[in-house]
């Protein structure tokens, strides 16, 4: 009987020590309900329930404290962490490297700078496409700098080589731009390049829209990778919204009225009037009536 009760409560997930204590207190003939009540009263919890409850119970943090435990990092609306709220990044390796090398040298360090920039922002899916022949020893007509970086990025599963081979001494290169656009389109990500891919835009109307809306241009300023704050122009999304799957709408900021106190729109004016902050906004007609009434009162006082 003792062993069967031990097995029963062990299956429920209670620790053997707790079960033994309760059975010693209540006796071996105690009913299972009584044993269970005593286990609960002691504060013993099934191990399975404890392991389930731990991640769902947030720890209390002192008010004003910014520190959170690793399990409580920022969660999106769908319960996924912040890295899932960021778009996948597909980098045109040749374009970035040549841009960093002032169109004279294939500078692999430029690729590393771009990858690091997106990593620091929290992007987890980053792919760089480079033609396979860039693995070969550099020639005078195509110099390459810091070639070892390509090997390091390949080991990290960040860099992908597009196929190329030699046929009768001539190099046959697959079109790496098509890989870049295709992967970015399928992943619903962002293309990092200063190329407009006009030939591919004409090839596929869906790609045309995608390239227009998801192309992130950039500059290198003193070995610093710098994308624009407004990737789609002054009236488009901010850079952070452009790189996010769920854009955050900015709070509505009241724009001051360009006419100021001379404004004749009254309460119908859509702009902000600091001088009307503590008074109800009157219509134009009501404002005129109030002014004329005030003038009439002044006249009356003067005549009196």
TrEMBL record:
Its cofactor is Mg(2+). The keyword Transferase does not apply. GO terms for cellular component: cytoplasmic ribonucleoprotein granule; nucleus. GO terms for molecular function: hydrolase activity; mRNA binding; RNA endonuclease activity; zinc ion binding. Residues 251-276 form the C3H1-type domain. Signal peptide: none annotated. Keywords: Endonuclease, Hydrolase, Magnesium, Metal-binding, Nuclease, Zinc, Zinc-finger. It comes from the Eukaryota. The keyword Metal-binding applies. This is ZC12D ribonuclease.
């Amino acid at each position: 009987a003792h062993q069967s009760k031990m097995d029963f409560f062990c299956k429920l997930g209670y620790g053997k020590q707790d079960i033994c204590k309760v059975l010693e207190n209540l006796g071996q003939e105690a009913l299972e309900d009584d044993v269970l009540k005593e286990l609960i009263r002691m504060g013993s919890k099934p191990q399975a329930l404890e392991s389930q409850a731990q991640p769902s119970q947030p720890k209390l943090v002192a008010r004003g404290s910014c520190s959170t435990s690793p399990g409580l990092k920022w969660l999106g609306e769908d319960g996924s962490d912040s890295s899932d709220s960021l778009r996948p990044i597909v980098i045109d390796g040749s374009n970035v490297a040549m841009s960093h090398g002032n169109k004279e040298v294939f500078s692999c360090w430029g690729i590393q700078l771009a990858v690091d920039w997106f990593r620091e922002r929290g992007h987890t899916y980053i792919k760089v496409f480079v033609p396979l022949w860039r693995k070969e020893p550099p020639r005078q007509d195509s110099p390459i700098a810091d070639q070892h970086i390509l090997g390091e990025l390949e080991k990290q599963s960040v860099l992908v080589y597009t196929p190329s081979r030699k046929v009768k001494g001539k190099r046959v290169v697959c079109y790496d731009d098509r890989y870049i656009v295709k992967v970015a389109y399928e992943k619903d990500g962002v293309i990092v390049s200063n190329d407009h891919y006009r030939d591919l835009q004409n090839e596929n109307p869906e790609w045309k829209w995608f390239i227009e809306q998801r192309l992130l241009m950039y500059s290198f300023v003193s070995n610093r990778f710098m994308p624009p704050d407004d990737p789609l122009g002054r009236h488009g999304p901010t850079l952070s919204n452009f790189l996010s799957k769920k854009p955050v709408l900015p709070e509505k900021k009241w724009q001051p009225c360009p006419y100021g106190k001379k404004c004749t729109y009254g309460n119908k004016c859509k702009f902000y009037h600091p001088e009307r902050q503590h008074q109800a906004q009157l219509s134009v007609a009501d404002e005129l009536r109030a002014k004329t009434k005030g003038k009439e009162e002044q006249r009356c006082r003067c005549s009196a």
